[in-house]
Structure formats: structure tokens, C-alpha cells
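B., you asked whether I could sanity-check this one before it goes into the benchmark set. Here's the sequence:
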Amino acid sequence: MCGRYAATGGRAELVAAFDVTETVGEELPPSYNVAPSQKVNVVLDRAPRDDPDANPVRMLNSQVKWGLVPSWAKDPKIGSRMINARSETITSKPAFKAAASRRRCIIPADGYYEWMKTKDAAKTPFFLHGNDDGPSAMAGLYELWPNPELPDDDPARWLWTCTVLTRPATDAAGEIHDRSPVILPPTFIGPWLDTGLTDRDDVDALLNSVPEPHLVPYEVSTAVNSPRNNRPDLLTPVHR
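And here's what the prediction gave me:
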């Protein structure tokens, strides 16, 4: 699973890294310990709100909460149970299949945290990241939930939420946990965000073709266990 990650890149860096042409919301500060329910940066292709028939543009939306809330949900609290989605079943699960066809996104991250269980049942935190400079692109889905208590013309009526896709872990990540995020190489970002890709079989085929990531893990301080801790030294290796 992916229940905590780091995202320290500023808006200008993300705009350049992902060829963004439009930004939505106020810029988020760097976070060394992103936790569920917090607002996160999400990159997606979507037609402008005031011209839905126009060609889609690459957007960076900074007002998306981590924890997907399906449009049909009666209570947005369901999002706390949907921070991750198994990539193997997103095109068939009711909570994810609509988004898998029409609302795919990427969630930029420097890397993510995972906890390895030891023989004495303790959990040791690790930070896993790629070898390349710049943010990684975690594959995700996004949704818009309409608040029934607000009028249709209220800008606050729509709650944007997202989830991170996971896959069976391999490489060094598999020694720490059996699941890891789906990390898209640069050549997969365009196809993943393509709004013309709507057939669920084609979505599955694309996911199945994503190569396994090669991640570098290192142990970090247990201070990361608390989402209240959010500072640069959380990324410092315990053993240098």
C-alpha cells in the first residue's frame, strides 16, 4: 500500500516536469510527510470548466484531497478507506471503474514511506524512491463528489478527491511490503492521462505494460510515524 509519501517540489518545478499549462488552487507548501485526507497536488488532462467541449489541457490541481470519494457516495467519509486502489481491479470495482475510464491522474512524489514488520512485530519505517532526479509520477484516479447540501452554482459544491494505484511489489520494495505504488515512466504519462482512452480493457492493457520500478529503500526515523511531524530530516537515512 501507500499510506504516506513526500512531495517537496514547488509549483514551478511540477509545471516544468509534467508540461502543465494551467494551475488550479493555491500553491501547496513542501510536505515531507503527506498523509491521507490532506490536500495534494494532482496532474490531469481535462477540458476547461468554462468550455467543456474544448480540447483537454494539462492541469495541476492543488485542491484535491487524498482519499477517493465516488460521485455516488452518500457520505464523503468513505474517502478515508480509499486512499489506495489495486491496479488489478480498478476497471471492475464499482468505486473505481468510472474513474478508471475517464478520470485518471498522476500524483507527483519524491518517494513514499513503507513500514517493514520485524520478527518481534515491530515496524521499521523506510523511504523508497527512484534513481532519477525530479518527482516520480504515481498513477492515480480522481473523482468529483457533489455536496447535496450546496446549490449547483456554488463553487464549493464539488469535492475533488484522489487515490493512489498499487501493484504487487518487486525488487527491493518487495522485501519491505507486498504492495507498492504504480510508478509511471515518463513515456507512460501521456497515455495514462489521455482522455480519449476510455475502454476498460485498454486501460488494463496499459497498466499491465507498465514496467516494474527500481526503487532505492533506506531506513528512516520513527518520527515519520506521526503525521504531525513534517520536516526535512524525516528523509535523512538512519544508517549512513
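One thing to flag: Residues 200-208 form the longest helix (9 residues). Otherwise nothing jumped out at me.
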